[in-house]
Design goal:
Glutamyl-tRNA Synthetase, domain 2, 3 domains, 45% helix, 12 strands, Rossmann fold, alpha/beta, 440 residues, binds glutamic acid, 3-stranded parallel β-sheet
Length: 440
């Protein structure tokens, strides 16, 4: 059965780049009728925080990306220990004692000599006595996985056939000196035990994948299908990494971006399919095909989210927002009309409030000097609220008759006086919603 997972570390808020990973994995599982696992990668006890885990769940729930199963790496340490023992017994795990500074120096020397900065495996040559001595001096060592020096090959769901020479990659550290299991080992154990069939993640993980394929095989697991999506850049192709902090899902939510607008964009951006606004996740899933995504960096412009949000709101039926309209205090008998009028004139749902305030209390009139007398005269011809859908037509006919003004010269000053704006809903609708007679 198709099983995918989204595996964030609870060390910060989810951002737009994480969303892409979550969404792709979610859609693959749902499209196949499979299982989607939310896996919390929390082996780093110092940096992992329960409040971030809560925030991750809240953000995914807001988007409707529901998970079938929740897993925590922190509860599986015994399993990682057993896997490490197995690798050790097979001669695939070896203890190293270099300090970060020493490793750095080695890397610099290699680079100076024009060589790739690959760990030189000098720890493999240590005798038991030398290791004892180093342990006594420096404490327990860290443990590296001994790669087989072969070409590691797989067909990537997005990047196509890939091949990485294991000799060009450093033996990955799986366990730190303080005993902490690192992501590479933990993730492999989980993917095997949870029956993960498809892994989608960012292209920054391609090298990890090469080494993980060897570790999976060394542990007797079967290798899932991998797909690496390109990383997001800003609209000009600039790296987004520094700005991701301000592109957290909760920031976008606070700015009024609607989940469906975000999902519609992210489900297609970077693929050969056009972005199409849909009303449900199911429709997005039906049209999703990972093989249509390309390897090139994907340009993301957050400005695209506002018009998508506005368009989404324009298509929303009253029933979808009835609670929110009621919460503004719009009377029941006006509520549906209010929504149908206002939805074409807002960017985000919160903009509704300003319209209701305007209908309820009136606007600060916008009146040009040369129109002041005209507007005063027009208002003297208007009766008291409440009004209805015919008020505007009858009133402006009377105003035209009395003042001789017509067309834009008649309507625009009245619109500006009544709404305080130059644009907005049809004036017949505005009048029908006004709760008080406008004044100057
Ligand atoms: N916790 C890892 C990350 O956020 C998961 C990567 C993966 O999908 O394997 O980078």
């Amino acid at each position: 059965m198709t099983t995918t997972r989204f595996a964030p570390s609870p060390t910060g808020y989810l951002h737009i780049g994480n969303l892409r990973t979550a969404l792709f994995n979610y859609m693959i599982a749902r499209k196949a009728g499979g299982t989607f696992i939310l896996r919390i990668d929390d082996t780093d006890a110092e940096r992992s925080k329960p409040e971030y885990e809560e925030a991750i769940k809240e953000d995914l729930t807001w988007l409707g990306l529901t998970w079938d199963r929740l897993e925590h790496q922190s509860s599986r340490l015994a399993r990682y220990q057993a896997a490490a023992d197995e690798l050790r017994a097979a001669g695939r795990l070896y203890e190293c004692f270099e300090t970060p500074t020493e490793l750095d120096l080695k890397r610099k020397k290699q680079l100076n000599m024009g060589k790739p900065p690959v760990y030189d495996r000098s720890a493999l040559a240590l005798s038991e006595a030398e290791k004892e001595k180093l342990r006594a001096e420096r404490g327990p060592g860290h443990w590296r996985f001994k790669l087989d020096h072969e070409r590691i090959e797989w067909t990537d769901g997005i990047l196509g056939p890939l091949s990485i020479d294991a000799a060009s990659v450093s033996d990955p550290v799986l366990i730190r000196g303080d005993g902490q299991f690192l992501y590479t080992l933990a993730s492999v154990c989980d993917d095997i035990d949870h029956g993960i069939t498809n892994v989608v993640r960012g292209s920054d993980h391609v090298t990890n994948t090469a080494t993980q394929i060897q570790i999976i095989r060394a542990l007797g697991g079967s290798v899932p299908e991998f797909a690496h999506h390109s990383l997001l850049t800003g609209p000009q192709g600039e790296a987004l990494s520094k700005r991701l902090g301000t592109l957290s899902l909760r920031d976008l939510r606070a700015r009024g971006i609607e989940p469906m607008a975000l999902l519609a964009l992210m489900a297609r951006l970077g693929s050969s399919d056009p972005v199409e606004l849909r009303t449900s996740l199911d429709e997005l899933i039906a049209g999703f095909d990972i093989s249509r995504f390309g390897a090139a960096p994907t340009k993301f412009d957050e400005a695209d989210l506002l018009p998508l949000t506005a368009r989404y709101l324009q298509g929303l039926p009253y029933a979808a927002v009835a609670d929110k309209v009621a919460a503004l205090g719009v009377p029941d008998d006006l509520a549906e009309r209010f929504w149908l009028v206002v939805r074409d004139n807002i960017n985000v749902l919160d903009d509704m409030a300003a319209w209701w305030q305007l209908f309820r209390d009136g606007a600060t009139p916008l009146v040009d000097d040369q129109d002041r007398d005209f507007v005063a005269e027009a208002l003297s011809l208007l009766g008291d609220a409440p009004y209805d859908g015919d008020t505007w037509g009858a009133w402006t006919a009377a105003v035209k008759e009395k003042t001789g003004r017509k067309g834009r010269a008649l309507f625009m000053p009245l619109r500006k006086a009544i709404t305080g704006r130059e644009r907005g809903p049809e004036m017949a609708d505005v009048m029908a919603l006004l709760q008080k007679k406008p004044t100057l």
